[in-house]
Design goal:
The complex is a heterodimer of chains A (341) and B (332).
Chain A (H helix, E strand, L loop, with lengths): L2 H4 L4 E13 L5 E13 L3 E5 L6 H9 L6 E6 L2 E2 L5 H10 E4 L13 H12 L4 H14 L16 H13 L5 E5 L7 H18 L2 E5 L3 H7 L2 E6 L2 E7 H6 L4 H10 L4 H10 L26 H5 L5 E4 L2 E3 L15 H6 L1
Parallel strand pairs in A: 3-8, 3-9, 6-7, 7-8
Antiparallel strand pairs in A: 1-2, 1-4, 4-5, 9-10, 10-12, 11-12
Chain B lengths: L4 E12 L2 E13 L4 E5 L6 H9 L6 E10 L2 E2 L5 H7 L4 E4 L3 H4 L6 H13 L3 H14 L5 H4 L9 H13 L5 E5 L7 H18 L2 E6 L2 H4 L5 E6 L2 E7 H6 L4 H9 L44 H5 L6 E4 L2 E3 L11
Parallel strand pairs in B: 3-8, 3-9, 6-7, 7-8
Antiparallel strand pairs in B: 1-2, 1-4, 4-5, 9-10, 10-12, 11-12
Helix pairs in contact in B: 4-5, 4-7, 5-7, 7-8
Classes of the chains: A alpha/beta (341), B alpha/beta (332).
Chain lengths: 341, 332
């Protein structure tokens, strides 16, 4: 539609080989994030999916510098974000903001909504109390809250309204990128739809990019242009959303999808064939080779010894699996047809 | 055959200084042996309150106003407390939403499963432990012998929820209430837990009341569904029929809210904007006798707010809806 949409979107954030390790008891190491790389483009959304413990949230926290990166690079525009300090860092923090999962835990219960939303303005933009309050009064309606909401305390809001407040706080400094860590997971489906539509509208109006972390494939497909699937600290498949959902290539992606398909014969068929049993192994000193090999129905000897590297399977679509292309992909057809017929 | 659970005209209210506030209004449903009913609705619609009323666990201030809850013919609202204690955990049991807070952190998993067995079935320590072990195996916990002596903190969320299921089913209850049993779990683990519940149900014939806010996720394991809104049942019918042709605008709205996965060729297109239900569930005490959903409803007319909400009326055999302007049957 607009010139911005036609032009090739430029990268805002490039994450190269990000690694976050934590020390564990007995000199062991938790490999929370191991060599994750992705690019977020202007006004676009990248979805990161995976089970708990796959490293989605740690990736977000590593990018935001909420946990220290063990190694790797986070490039914001053309600058190394991880190396920034002082005023430069504060300036950069204005441009990337975050919305957390639990709107009950991420708002200070003893401060009024207006103060909470004004905080980034005061800290990062140095606005006076008065100027910040004026900006808050403009911000609240953009997230669907009345300006008077500024004088209420968090407990006076419902879960969905609290998440709107968190979004208003993230929007306050007019960021280029918002990292949403399971931002709709704690909400009822009806409220979730309201928040998703709000995020999408804000993106269209303001050209904000999102990193959207979720375990819900339906939500990610709905909101995101690109998707990255994480398993035990690594991205095992990554690509444009349409390409990924038309032809996912990694057996773990198939498992996630088969668990998320709506009820019906297709779901039964996919679950029987692709849903993996059990739970992921511990991220403490993970085994050599493909980390999914132990649960994978298609693993061969090579998978247990040699780590698969991401390789292209379609334009901008990468998969880290030795057997991609060898094993027959799931057949997604006929599911809905069979049901309505 | 009498149903395992028969809830009739269940009305629960909250006593406040300012007066009585209705919480659940004239809720009725029945559940046969080996069957599953889903109670669906947003937070604040009375799903969990229904569960607590059945279990006789209503919090302070909430009172059963009228109605009856027959468990295998016995009205649990009228039995003395001792009898209720004998039923709870034995003939009827419940799985809570948060496996972390529902398990006692200072007792081993085995002890917690044994508790119900020793109390209700009079088993000795040894015999109870053996049954507990068998239960852990039945819920497919790997290395069950060791896990029997593990504390809850040493288990993952999925494992804890399996332990909860083992505890709840240890005495082979007639009725199991599962309150959002998988919301705290990953999708793949969710699918495993539901499959497990279904399997155990087939083996034991337990009737299940499944509470959820996402009907799509549980459609394949439930037989009937009751959609609650603001403490009232607005639609009730066979799950497949309600899913395919929801007749109450609220039910239809709920279904349209969750993004449906599009796979294969269907994945290529641009997603349509998600439908949303504007606004919020009205809080307790602000629910008029007219349709409580009317302010959020696109189909509402003057009649909806002027007249009392219509009673549930059959719209086809087994399928009831409470609406002045029910949706037409969808053209497939």
């Amino acid at each position: 539609m607009t010139a911005v949409e036609n032009a090739r979107p430029r990268p805002i954030l490039q994450v190269n080989d990000l690694t976050v390790h934590f020390p564990a008891a007995g000199g062991k190491v938790v490999h929370a994030v191991d060599g994750v790389s992705f690019v977020v483009h202007e006004g676009r959304s990248l979805g990161i999916v995976g089970e708990s413990g796959s490293g989605k949230s740690t990736t977000a926290q590593g990018v935001m510098r909420l946990v220290p990166a063990t190694s790797g690079q986070v490039v914001l525009r053309d600058e190394d974000f991880l190396a920034m300090r002082g005023g430069r860092l504060r300036e950069a923090r204005r441009r990337i903001q975050m919305v957390f999962q639990d709107p009950f835990a991420s708002l200070d219960p003893r401060r009024q909504a207006g103060e909470l939303v004004a905080e980034p303005l005061r800290l990062l933009e140095g606005l006076s109390r008065r100027a910040a309050a004026d900006r808050v009064a403009e911000l609240l309606p953009t997230v669907g809250l009345p300006p008077e909401a500024a004088f209420l305390y968090p407990h006076q809001f419902s879960g969905g309204q609290r998440q709107r407040l968190c979004i208003a706080r993230a929007l306050a400094t007019a960021p280029e990128l918002i990292v949403c860590d399971e931002a709709v997971s704690a909400l009822d489906v009806a409220i979730q739809a309201q928040i998703l539509n709000l995020l999408r509208r804000l993106q269209q109006e303001r050209g904000i990019a999102y990193i959207f972390i979720s375990h819900d494939l339906g939500v990610v497909q709905h909101l995101c242009d690109e998707i990255a699937v994480m398993y035990l600290g690594q991205i095992i498949e990554q690509g444009p959303t349409a390409s990924f959902f038309s032809a996912p290539r990694h057996p773990y992606s198939w498992s996630l999808i088969s668990a998320a398909v709506p009820a019906g014969p297709l779901r039964e068929r996919l679950k029987a064939r692709y849903l993996v049993k059990g739970e992921p192994p511990s991220p403490i000193d993970p085994p050599a080779g493909c980390r999914f090999a132990g649960r994978c129905a298609f693993a061969v000897d090579r998978c247990r010894t040699e780590t698969p590297l991401p390789r292209p399977v379609a334009p901008r679509h990468f998969v880290a699996c030795h057997r991609a292309g060898e094993i027959e992909a799931p057949d997604f057809s006929s599911g809905e047809m069979a049901r309505s017929a | 055959m009498i149903p395992i659970l028969s809830v009739r005209d269940l009305t629960v209210s909250l006593k406040r200084a300012s007066g009585t506030v209705p919480v659940l209004e004239r809720l009725s449903f029945e559940l046969d042996r080996g069957r599953t009913i889903a109670l669906v609705g947003e937070s604040g619609c009375g799903k969990s309150m229904t569960a607590l009323a059945i279990m006789g666990l209503l919090p302070d201030g909430f009172a059963l106003e009228k109605g009856s809850i027959l468990l295998d013919g016995e009205d649990v609202t009228k039995v003395p407390p001792a009898r209720l204690r004998a039923l709870r955990g034995n003939a009827m049991s419940m799985i809570f939403q948060e496996p972390m807070t529902a398990l006692n952190p200072v007792f081993t998993v085995g002890d917690q499963i044994c508790e119900a067995l020793r109390l209700h079935q009079g088993l000795g320590r040894q015999a109870a432990m053996e049954r507990a072990l068998a239960m852990l195996k039945a819920v497919q916990i790997p290395a069950a012998e060791q896990r029997l002596h593990a504390y809850p903190h040493a288990l993952s969320g999925g494992m804890r929820q399996r332990v909860m299921i083992a505890m709840a089913l240890a005495c082979r209850p007639k009725l199991l209430i599962a309150d959002e049993p998988t919301t705290a779990l990953d999708v793949t683990v969710q699918a495993q837990v539901f499959d497990l519940l279904k399997e155990l149900q087939e083996e034991m014939g337990t009737a299940i009341v499944l509470i959820t806010h996402d009907l799509g996720a549980v459609a394949d394991i439930t037989d009937t569904v009751a959609v609650l809104y603001a403490g009232r049942c607005v639609e009730h019918g066979p799950t497949l029929e309600v899913m395919e042709a929801p007749r109450h605008p609220y039910t239809r709205g709920l279904m349209a809210c969750s993004p449906h996965l599009r796979l294969g060729a269907a994945a290529a297109g641009v997603p349509e904007p998600l439908q949303e239900i504007p606004g919020l569930v009205p809080p307790l005490g602000q629910r008029p006798p007219s349709c409580a959903f009317a302010p959020r409803c696109a189909r509402a007319t003057d009649k909806c707010s002027a007249q009392d909400q219509p009673p549930l009326a059959a719209i086809s055999p087994d399928h009831e809806v409470s609406c002045w302007h029910p949706e037409e049957r969808a053209v497939a």
